[in-house]
From TrEMBL:
Pfam families: GMC_oxred_C. Residues 50-178 form the Glucose-methanol-choline oxidoreductase C-terminal domain. GO terms for molecular function: flavin adenine dinucleotide binding; oxidoreductase activity, acting on CH-OH group of donors. InterPro entries: FAD/NAD-bd_sf, GMC_OxRdtase, GMC_OxRtase_C. The lineage of its organism: Bacteria, Bacillati, Actinomycetota, Actinomycetes, Pseudonocardiales. This is GMC oxidoreductase. It comes from Actinomycetospora succinea. Belongs to the GMC oxidoreductase family.
Length: 186
């Protein structure tokens, strides 16, 4: 795992890179670029995204989840820069001896085509937060003791209580929330 800035004027790292030892690509990318089973993926991810999704409960009781990934132009720009940086990293001598060929997005690609590729390749890191944001304001779903407002005896103890996503993996803060919940309940 590594942290990087998408541009020199970005104050703090806004990208994270994960090396995945499997061909981790979207179905759309896999259909356009046959990926060998022994491929690996250098996957850039955005930290502190500006795009916002939403979810709602349908009349049938199922969730309607709209991620809205890359809806904010700044997120798209950072994602494209992230792939460019990843491609540059993959071209370094240490990687060159491991890479027979670049599969996706391919060997030569201009910025417009890369932007299209990023839109098609974007996938979530499966670390959503904030659907039951904690706080003291009227718009908070849970209070600072993790109690759901208006429903007695119910607490939420997962990443959904984070009002905003952390700049790195949500695993450690989620474990801390669970530990706090255990203390509150005991």
């Amino acid at each position: 795992m590594a942290f990087w800035r998408s541009a020199p004027d970005v104050a703090v790292p806004d990208l994270t890179y994960v090396s995945v030892q499997i061909p981790y690509v979207s179905a759309e990318v896999a259909a356009a670029h046959p990926v060998p089973a022994n491929a690996f993926c250098l996957a850039p991810g955005l930290m502190n995204v500006r795009s916002r999704g939403h979810l709602r409960l349908t009349e049938g009781g199922t969730l309607d989840i709209v991620a809205n990934m890359l809806a904010d132009p700044a997120d798209l720009e950072a994602a494209v820069a992230g792939v460019e940086i990843g491609l540059e990293l993959a071209d370094q001598p240490a990687f060159r001896k491991l890479v027979a060929r670049r599969v996706a997005p391919g060997a030569e690609i201009d910025r417009a085509a890369l932007t299209t590729f990023v839109r098609r390749a974007a996938m979530p890191y499966f670390h959503p937060v904030g659907t039951c944001a904690m706080g003291s304001g009227d718009d908070a779903v849970v209070d600072p003791q993790l109690r759901v407002r208006g429903i007695e005896g119910l607490r939420v103890a997962d990443a959904s209580v984070m009002p905003a996503i952390t700049s790195a993996n949500t695993n450690a803060p989620t474990a801390m929330i669970a530990e706090k919940a255990a203390d509150l309940i005991a």
